[in-house]
Amino acid sequence: MGKASRGKRQRRETAAAAPARASTSGRALWAAGGGVSAALIALVVALVMINWSGGPSEPKGPLPEADQAAADDNAPASLVSAATKSGFYLASEPGTGTIESKPASAAQAPRSTILLDEGASAPDFTLRTPQGEELQLSALRWKAVLLEFFATWCGLCNAEAPHLKRLANSLPADKYAFVSINADGEDAGSVFAYHRYHRLGFPALLDPGTRAGTFRKPGIPGPVSQQYGMKSLPTFYVIDPHGNVSWRSDGEQPDAKLREELERAAAR
User: Fold this and answer.
1) Rounded distance between C-alpha atoms, residue 134 and residue 163, angstroms
2) What is the DSSP letter of 63?
3) What mean pLDDT is reported for the chain?
4) Which of 63, 85, 178, 264 could disulfide-link to 168, CB 3.0 to 4.6 Å?
């Protein structure tokens, strides 16, 4: 066979082998690409499953202010009827509503001797609003919390309510939270009537005792109110972002004092 013939045969063999090599390389690339695609698909499926399942459960915190107002406006008819039957009206007492505008230095020492100590861990709790929404204190961790214990028939509490509303509205919701707990074991109708009357943007919670109270009839403080050493109305606690008692007192308070203590707690 001459050189020309041998060259032609080599070229034909080379040409025949090239598609085979190309095919082998293509299969390798497809397999690699298929592996990447499978990994991407698995990742997407995992993310979809997490979103579909809602992810890990979280403690329940308060509704945003607009939702609190909407919850009152859209309360079930049975709760609205119970509020009407409670007979709630704006209770008042002589001499109330004046200390709120005074400087922080006008605040007086607490009257109750069994309030939790400053620096103590604030006991966690889960209570419900009159509409049945749950709130867990530990869900507010990393915020400074103003916790108020009140009764609907308390003149001092009613005097404080609009001041607390303005103070809550003036502070950023990502750093501060306000929560009220009914300290007389009152029923849902009475507490709802109070909350709706004052148009409060923060939640009021029920703390049922061994004897239910109403706007017209005192009850017995519930377990959370007792655990926090509530003896006078209103009683206030400021809880720092780590869940510890930063300050506490009872009776009416200057707005400036509450703001001062909340800002001090938030800075911890």
Assistant:
1) 25
2) P
3) 83
4) 178
